[in-house]
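Escalation from tier 1.

The customer reports that the assembly of two entities below gives different structure tokens on two consecutive runs. Tier 1 could not reproduce it. I'm attaching the input and our single run for tier 2 to review.
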Amino acid sequence: MELTINGTKHRVDVEPDTPLLWVLRDELGLTGTKYGCGVAQCGACTVMIDGQATRSCVTPVESVTGAAITTIEAVEADPVGRKVVEAWVAHQVPQCGYCQSGQVMAATALLKQMPQPSDADISGAMLNLCRCGTYNAIAAAVRDAARS
Amino acid sequence: MNASFPLPSQASAADPFKPSRRSVVGGLGALVLGVALPQGARAQNAAAGIKPGTRVSAFLEIRPDSTVLFRSPFIEGGQGVFTAMAQIVGEELDVEPTRFVIEGAPPGPDYLLLGGARFTGGSMSVRKSYDTMRRLGASARSMLMQAAATQWKVPVATLSTEPGRVLHKASGRSLAYGALAKAAAALPVPTQVSLRASADFRWIGKSVPRLDVRDKATGKTQYAIDLKVEGMVHAAVQHGSRLGLDPAAIANEAEVRAMPGVQSIHRLPGAVAVVATSWWRARRAVEALQVTWAASPSASVRVMPADFSSEAHRAALAAATGEGIAAETAGDVAASLTGARTVVEATYDAPYLAHGQLEPPSAIARFNADGRLELWLPNQAPEMFQADAAKVAGLTPDKVILHSPVLGGFFGRHFLYQAAAPYTQAILLAKAVGRPVKVIWSREEEFLRDALRPLSVARFKAGLDADGLPVALQAVAIGEGPVGRWFGRAADKADDSAVEGIAGKPYAIPHRRIAQLPVDDPAIIGFWRSVGHSMNDYFYETFFDEMADAGKQDPFALRLRLLGDSPRHKTLLQAVGDLSGGWRRGPFSAADGSRRARGVAMASPFGSEVATIAEVSLNGGDIVVHDVWVAIDPGSIVNPAVIEAQVQSAVALGLSSALFEEVVYENGVPRARNYDSYPILPPDRMPKVHVRIVESGAPMGGIGEPGLPGVPPAVANAVAALTGKRIRSLPLSKTDLKGMAG
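Tier 1 run:
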């Protein structure tokens, strides 16, 4: 199976219904994308599929063979992603940090589709869980990234 | 012999953040880097009576480029302790905090800074090591200056430093720390050093940016679950539904063995495991196993009864009789209750809670060619895990190398609890397959085996005088505390972790008796952020409002009155009142037309003092928490930005527990096995959080936990003010508030 991840083609030999998350982590060593729940509840595994924030833990790898997959490892190669990361640093968002790859990917996907989101747009798109409760810092960082 | 810095160290060779080939493959690379601070040397040091926190070389390695590697006795899990260590040590060493690279220290006597032990918990890290870490930094600076004095042949008194350099102003000479490190390392650690005056602090007390945010915002930080060692295979497990069950028969072993990537199938104590070429394959296979379970013959296993239910346990606690073991007494509570004008009584309860940290537990175990066992696992107590792993492997602790990566959340999850972590399985599997094994628990297995915040019931009885003021308070906390469970309980002594937050309150109620009525808990119980305070301050502070209502007192004014003897608490309560724009209980109409009310609560957790106000409304039957104001007095501080972040975090977790969280057991098993059935606070339920730090100058208190305990009672008190309904059982969402005024 051939996958296009962060602009590079990779051949992987896995069962077609393997979740993309585990292909990224175990087959390709891209461990920035996290396993949290495995049932699309927490969002720690969020990546972009053709620009769309997607929960990779429930995405069969066979469904994304023709797609452009972007993971946190390449987020700074994207100008919007870079802005998001800078806002994350400026607002000192992460605490334990485990959910933050997914949060940054969700924010990047949002701002690529909607450069000037309203607060309602932000709360409609930023649904990932954070057990450290960094939600206020996340919302502030997204607003700031949209302004910059 | 003086140990020296830079030291060929275990930590630098086997950096848990970078488990590169060279670090994890034995042999030449490891040899060059000197994997392992020789355990023999450690034992000698212990025998020689190492005083924890004094041997500079155990903590600091100044590299040629003048960056500083610091081995932290405390593990980073989001609370900002690595940054705090860089601030404190850097202040005295005279190195900018940004120049530090920090990792969790390996097990060893140098790091036993909490009364001869070590763990990351109890909100103790900074407050208990602050003085020691300052002296450590100052000692290293003194050694660098002495090395320069020797090299330049000038008196050390003529030297000074600027960040990262030693200066001889008279001659205009200077040398970078990196150029002096080797010579400094050969010097003895000074017995006396002088510390900077606090007025001259550049980093302590300032909002120094965290050292770890950029890596965490770009996915570079590696947690235990992300690590990989050469030749490693993956394992997944299926546990028996209850503790005390072992696998007896497997109906479809041959079929499962034929599944893709499966290498072997194993029967373990309390679980079956599949080893495979990837974790997903291992998981799919292990969950396909059709296992018959049977009672374990092992007497060492705690057994979860097949008929256990959390509701029945709650009812049993509520029905338990007796006065319990006194933890705090004053005056004559019985006589005072008899003579009281009004008596108020209420019984409260709070449920089991799961930690729900987002990083599922994992462990990597590898037996090295020299017979030692090397482990990578999330933990808050390296020496305790090392000792237990040694027992499992049949080795002495010095033959166990333990790496403690940063934690993807912990909140008390990663202490050593029986059967609640996968390292035992990793060790047994690595031994069985002769290769390094990484075990990851699925989220479902994690919910099955987490160590829970205990369920507890508290009974209160108060007496009010003719003026409506409380004069007597009798309280009994019923249940078991985690300190007693894991560190032993004296038969005649209350467990602090069961009564804290009911005992130790600051109010001047002259006649008091606070007690614990111990009742064993069948579940595996553990420490959960703010421990007993997480529920006891809810019980007490909510009952306080019941006393106020019965005596027709405003709850804020009554608190202020009963704090009359304590300026520190009064100041704090007034601070939170001011921060919220002046106390008003409500109900009142907000600008958006909603009807709202406020509740207040105080707590004295982990050496800090906290006052909290919450504002709520109802939306349908749902409680909406709009704002939470927190005034916190930790005595003195290291990093105000980190304190504010920790208060935000504690408010989120406290609110999550107040509104939603409850582990329910039926027939010996937990009902929820993932976040879909164990909801935690989502982003759209996060209130605005306003923080004011008050530095009273009292001895330094904790930060990671203290923001939590005031939140559930402040919210519950606000709900009572809004609706007139007093909710005495958490989570609040169990109580139907539909149709209530609001």
